[in-house]
Amino acid sequence: MGINKSRSNQQKIISVMVPYKIDEPFQYFASQNSSLSLGDFVSVPLGQKIIIGVVWDKHPKKTVDSIKLKKVIEKQNIPPMSKSLLLLIEWVSNYTLAPLGSVLKLAMPPLNFSKNHDIKKTLFFSGHIPKRLTEGRSKIINFIEKEPGCTLEEVIKFTNVSKNILKVLIKQGYVKEKIIKENELLFEENFNETIPELTKEQLLVSGKIMNEINKNNFSVILLDGVTGSGKTEVYFEAISKVIKKGNQALIMLPEISLTEQWLQKFYQRFGVEPILWHSSIGKKDRVNAWKKISTGQVKVVVGARSSLFLPFKNLDLIIVDEEHDPSYKQQENVIYNARDMAIVRANILNKPIILVSATPSLETLYNVKIKKYSLVKLKERYGGAKLPSISIIDLNNEKKTPKKWISNSLIEEIKKCLINKEQAMLFLNRRGYAPLTLCKKCGYRLECNNCSSWLVMHQSLNKLLCHHCGYSINYPEKCPKCDTENSLVLIGPGIERLSEEVSQVFPEAKQELLSSDLLVNHKETSNSFERIKKGEVDIIIGTQVMSKGHHFPYLTLVGVIDGDIGLVGGDIRANEKTFQLLYQVSGRAGREKLGGSAFIQTYYPNYPVMESIKKGLRDQFLDNELDNRKSNLMPPFGKLASVIISSSDENEAMALAQKLSKIAPKIEDIQLFGPVAAPIKFLRGRYRFRILLKASRSAKLQSYIKNWILFNRYPKRVKVQIDIDPYTFL
Ligand code: ADP
Ligand code: ZN
């Protein structure tokens, strides 16, 4: 415990960690009789500011002369951070090499948390009339006598007397304060379960999961079930058990767009809404959620990455849905994989965790193979629905029409689907209208000012946007380079352009366009999902937000416009990710009585990933991939880390990158590649260079990096970022 006695009798020295980009706590004085303990939230002075920090366990390496120490201001009215969360924060910081304070920041209460939002102070008359009775005073006393139980603000508002007069009356005891907790509906009160009848297979799997969970120890269970097999219904059983015990469950979903249908399902089953947690919930909801989670009042939380750091009181079970999803990897500030850190949290708590997917990641499958994780499988779709048939459309054999992206074969299939009054979905993982705009006279390409990337035309906004930094310009009338008018041409399709083509080919069909930038409004999103579910939409055009999780009863045909999109670039997971995406998006088709089919347009029909997806040979494909990784000692057989050196000054960044590579200690089980200019060399105004480390599984990668890279010792403009287990290599 970070509490030391100082020489003076009245004061002790404690360590307080603050949510800033630093690695060690600061020391403060606290009065000897203050009851501060580990995990308590306290306000402390820092520079000119007063901020909230957490009483911490470790001492700074260099202690400060106690004369210079400042005092803790006060303990906050916030439930202290649990030991397990403190441990998680330290663990994440040690693993990712992000500063301890930056990780702590992820777990801090929302601003203004400690203000008592649901506790009211109400006022009552004491029964004693003040000796000195001015006009203001008597107004107040009369009012309070008639209307007991009003708040201070209400009394001021109705009597129109100055606040100070009332405060003095309270201080002198003529008016009494009483603290009242506003009534809150407790979760259990509404909890009203409608239990579905599980199929034989579901029952079996659910039973196995329960057996594991009942041990009430740390264990990782992979729930591997084909698309539409009812994985959600099966893990709801486990959640139900947790709720009945009075404990809490956390369900993580990789994307906000998936929560809509999930919440509906949850409501149907449990008759209540769980707490939702992600980056775009409002401030008030945030405070409310934090409070109810920390007091244990709320039993079920569904959230994105950041929900991992919530202050659960008695977390009993974690579920990571779509565990393979790359968006669990946070790419900024603290660079961490929320799935992996969820496993760490379960481990620290000694509780079970369920990973759920129809296309588990290679890492997870490998852990099943070596018996670190247990496996349960759902092989059938619910309700007798069949898995979709998957066909490959070889674009090399199709007639090419300029500015058209839907092949004739696919058009024929869509026609049949529409004649049958069924729904089709066209999938293209590109937002906007066109990914590239160039001048046909001089060849100039419209690029972002802050990044080395093309600007993407968004017709709906009539703007060109950078998808990396948000930079935007209006569509220019002439080429910015050669000044020729009307010389700009838009190259390639985004979903807006695809939608234009659909309107030309199927003028009667009702379309719905869905991508992350279009799904910002909660109400609109839920309306558009509702229209799709009711069959009021004929053709859905979507990006990856539509690729997984969704269940649309009338959807029978899925057409993938560019099946090759993920195959380019040197990403070691390119094949795996492409397979997962194509399998998931195909899995949206034929999820009820109507059979489904998927068509994938590609220029590489003979690639193993296309062959396997066509034949439905998932396990064989994954085994092959595992073999490949093994022979190259790539994850999960080896470990990777990226070092990204960036600066607004290109030479400065390059010089440091070269220097780091030169001074890197040479050891046998860690290889170093680079530095090379990053594929996106210029990003958000910074030039970037990359060094890749490849290590054996047993190598001490983190301590190697810590000994090699001396953070904070480089010129101020240069940033050195570490990405452990990188997912992108841009
Ligand atoms: P998955 O997540 O495995 O793709 P879902 O959980 O979305 O599958 O299930 C597919 C559909 O089948 C959903 O509409 C779900 O409500 C329904 N379903 C699955 N199992 C049952 C069951 N036992 N009883 C009723 N409906 C079920
Ligand atoms: Zn940019």
Residue share in helix: 25-40%
Tell me the number of strands.
Answer: 31
Q: Which CATH architecture of the largest domain?
A: 3-Layer(aba) Sandwich
- State the strand order across the main sheet: 12-13-11-14-15-10-16
- As for the CATH topology of the largest domain, it is Rossmann fold
Task: Spell out the CATH superfamily of the largest domain.
Answer: P-loop containing nucleotide triphosphate hydrolases
The total tally of domains equals: 5
**What characterizes the major β-sheet?**
7 strands, parallel
Bound molecules: adenosine-5'-diphosphate, zinc ion
Structural class of the helix and strand makeup? alpha/beta
Distance between the termini: 42 Å
The mean pLDDT is 89
> Proportion of β residues?
15-25%
Assembly type of the chains comes to single chain
Topology:
Layout: E1 3-5, E2 11-17, E3 26-31, E4 41-46, E5 49-55, E6 74-75, H1 83-96, H2 100-106, E7 119-125, H3 135-146, E8 150-151, H4 152-159, H5 163-171, E9 175-181, H6 187-190, H7 200-214, E10 219-225, H8 231-244, E11 248-252, H9 259-270, E12 275-277, H10 283-294, E13 300-303, E14 315-321, H11 338-349, E15 352-357, H12 362-369, E16 374-378, E17 389-394, H13 408-419, E18 423-427, E19 436-439, E20 456-458, E21 463-465, E22 472-474, E23 488-491, H14 495-505, E24 511-514, H15 522-533, E25 539-542, E26 555-560, H16 574-586, E27 597-602, H17 608-615, H18 618-631, E28 638-647, H19 650-663, E29 670-683, E30 686-696, H20 701-708, E31 719-724
Parallel strand pairs: 10-15, 10-16, 11-13, 11-14, 12-13, 14-15, 17-27, 18-25, 18-26, 24-25, 26-27
Antiparallel strand pairs: 1-2, 2-3, 2-5, 4-5, 4-6, 7-8, 7-9, 19-23, 20-21, 21-22, 28-30, 28-31, 29-30
Helix pairs in contact: 1-2, 1-11, 3-4, 7-8
The protein binds adenosine-5'-diphosphate (ADP) and zinc ion.
